[in-house]
Amino acid sequence: MASLTYYSLPGFGEKCREEYGFSDSCIIGDRILTTGQTGMNPLTLKTSSNFDEEVAKAFSNMNDLIMHTLKKANIWSDSEQHTGWDHVVKVRAFVVGLASIREEAREQIVKNIRKWCPRHQPLFTMIGIESLPFPEHHVEIEVDAFIDNTYSTL
Fold it and tell me: Record's SUPFAM superfamilies (predicted)?
């Protein structure tokens, strides 16, 4: 395991690494493994009480995580034409109380997948859960990403 490199976003990601002993992402070969991202602002630690905004922020946070990981690993081209989501092949959404908000959750998550993945259609699984570690969080997004050399500087 010593040859693996782990990455954490500034703010809450670094706090989790230091206080709890886990990282946000890891590159293994041509794959990026990520921890789930919620709709919390990682610098202010605030989460919107609006579900749509929370979902949108979770997707934005995941983009930031993938881009941060690729940049730290020196394999991102900084092209404005591409996002971290261009590398995503599978999306898992964990939704608190899914049974009571199924339609809204599906609508908002699909809306964000379409926004962030306009050139491809990743695999998608939505899972209803009882709770997340922080009570103000209602959704957590986790992805599997593939490092495609199309966007690489190498």
Answer: YjgF-like (SSF55298)
